[in-house]
Amino acid sequence: MKNRSDLPDITFLDLPEITFCVFYPETASQGPDVPGQKKALSFPLDENVSLGAMIHLAQEAEVAPNLLFFHGNGEVVADYDEIGPLYTMLGINFTVVDYRGYGTSGGNPTYSSMIKDAHIVFCQFLGFLEEAGLKGPVVVMGRSLGSASALELAAHYPEKIFGLILESGFAHTYNLLTTLGVDPRLLDSSKEHLVSNLEKMKMFEGPVLVIHGEIDEIIPLSDGLELYQAAKNETKEMLVIRDAGHNTLMLLGLEDYMEAIGRFVGNSMTG
Predict the structure, then answer these.
(1) CA 181 to chain centre
(2) Distance set, CA 23 to CA 67, 118, 222 (Å)
(3) β pairing state of 93-97 and 66-70
(4) Alpha-carbon distance 54 to 39, whole Å?
């Protein structure tokens, strides 16, 4: 799992002109561990670089479902210190992980490394759960740019992932890149299928929850609807937060947002 030889070469998206538009890395320290509540994690990569992460632990952590979260391109793990307890109160172990160059992580981000690193993180995350005695099912979630990492894992490890949650996820990678300011002339249309979130969604047969803002100004609601429609499992749900933009879903719809996640993840214990 750690070094997959079947992954396509997507380094064509690693041009500096693309990386500059897609990633907004920011270093940030993490708060101290709190025994029984949260613990800093580190996922070492292949080239002397590690990715920082934080797990927020539910009260009955050993049997709680485990949610692995990939955040947006302008966020860091520390931004979720106040959000993590919202998940643990629902009985969910919540782990959020940074990309290269973000938070306490080393290296510099590129699109291909983000996708490759997701595989390494997932392998080590499963190993951590086993060593820590955290036996609950695994759910993967991605917000905005993080939907690419979440869908990458869902497409490749469906037997290990109970469910998939996408918040403000994009269906069409090239459309997002151009929205972020990438010159369309830098994008080879013959290779677009290699990085298509929509195609990866079609490969996952597990339960799916899609959450999207009604008036998302960066990733239109139509992307979320396409991802929802492409989901194969009959257990799928679409939550549209009324009047919410790309970054205001929790501000305008926190109760519905957390209720939907709690119900969806809770079903992993009985499904």
Answers:
(1) 22
(2) 24, 16, 23
(3) parallel
(4) 6
First-to-final CA distance of the chain: 26
Closest CA to 68 of 87, 45, 48, 86: 87
Best CA proximity match to 121, nearest among 189, 185, 46? 46
Look up residue 132 and give its two tokens.
Answer: 């820590």
Q: Structural domain boundaries of the chain?
A: 11-269
Closest CA to 163 of 70, 233, 258, 225: 233
Instruction: Look at the block and give the residue holding tokens 């993180």.
Output: 121
Going by C-beta distance under 8 Å and a sequence separation of 6 or more, which residues neighbour residue 64? 57, 58, 91, 92, 93, 134, 136
Summarised one tens digit per residue, pLDDT across range 137-178 is: 999 999 999 999 999 999 999 999 999 999 999 999 999 999
| Residue 271 reports pLDDT greater than 70 | no
Q: How far apart are CA 271 and CA 267, in angstroms?
A: 6
> At the fourth CATH level, which superfamily is domain 11-269?
Alpha/Beta hydrolase fold, catalytic domain (3.40.50.1820)
Which residues are within 8 A (CB) of 242 and not within 5 positions of it... i.e. 6 or more apart?
Answer: 214, 252, 253
User: Measured between alpha carbons, how far is 258 from 232 in angstroms, rounded to an integer?
Assistant: 24
pLDDT, tens digit, 9 for 90 and up, residues 213-224: 999 999 999 999
C-beta separation of 80 from 110 below 8 A = no
- Those residues whose C-beta lies under 8 Å from the C-beta of residue 215, and which sit 6 or more positions away, are 221, 243, 244, 245
Note the pLDDT of residue 1.
Answer: 47
Unique residue bearing structure tokens 């759960």: 129
Instruction: Report how far residue 80's alpha carbon sits from residue 97's, in angstroms, rounded to the nearest whole number.
Output: 10
